[in-house]
Design brief:
single chain; 172 residues; mainly alpha; two-stranded antiparallel ribbon; 8 helices; 52% helix
Amino acid sequence: MGKAKRKKKTPTAVDRTLPTPEQLASGDFVSAGMPMRRVPMIETMHKRGQLTEEEYRSLGYYRDQASIADRSGVKSCLDREIGSGGAGPGAAVISALIETGRIERDLGSLWKIARAVAVDDLSLTQWCIGIYGGRERYNAHGEFIVMVPVDEKNVIGLALLELKMAAGRIVR
């Protein structure tokens, strides 16, 4: 007598957790398989043609160094396993701290906008609203659309120019 045939399992729908509406409003997301990955703001600006290749690479380098420098050293200090770092942060973290400090000193007063856009992933509009204030924009039916900075064209144009100048000051 033959083996009993097994029932094939029907594939179930995957319950994918999408970003919250607040997260969707503040950035772009792409699928990275199951999870959603946030697209860095400098990558979005590069695709739009707002940043040149050299500016994109410079801001990307600053982003990488700052993200390494911002890592918590708690695990490396407490984990006593072989290769864990022992009694302090690793050489990569110390090097990134020194490099990030050097870059931010070279940027001078432009470090705030460079950090906000490259590391914290704020859009130029969000940064301008935080610095200069914003106003609400409504459509013809009186429905709220979006917050925009006061004197939108001039302020965003100046912010983009400042970001480009900051990218030019970053030396690798």
